[in-house]
Amino acid sequence: MSAYPIPPRVYPTMRPNQVLSMLGTVVSLFHNFPVLVRSTNELVERHIAYGVELAHYDLFFTLLPKVLQAELGDRWDAATASAWKRVGVLVCTMAKGVYSKVAANAPPTLE
Q: pLDDT tens, 69-93?
C-alpha cells in the first residue's frame, strides 16, 4: 500500500506510460515556451476534470526525482537534479495558476 494514497476517483485514470510521455513532451517544449504554457495549462484543465487535486502536483514532483535517481543511478547528477527541480517548479506554478483561474470562475456553493 502506498504511503500516499491515490483518491479512488483518480486512480482509474492514471496511466504510467502516459505520465512519462507527457513529461517527455513538457521537456521537449522548453524551447517553445508559449506552446509549453498552452499545453501544460490544457493538461491541468483536464486533470481538474479528472478530479486531480492541486496538492498532487507538489507530491508528484517531490517523488519524481527520487524515482529518477533510483532508476538512473550514477547517471543522476547535480545538473540533472536541478533541471528536474526546475521542471517541477514550473509545472506546479502553472498548475496553481490554472486552479486559481478555475476557482475564480466557479459558481458559488451553498454550505
A: 988 899 999 999 998 999 999 999 9
| CATH classification for the domain delimited by 14-101, as one of 3.40.50.300, 1.10.10.10, 1.10.540.10, 1.10.490.10 | 1.10.490.10
pTM above 0.85, yes or no: no
Which residues, at least 6 apart from 23, have a Cβ–Cβ distance to it below 8 Å? 64, 87
In degrees and rounded to multiples of 5, residue 74 shows phi and psi of: -65, -20
Cell reading at 49: 476534470
Scan for cell 522548453, then name that residue: 30
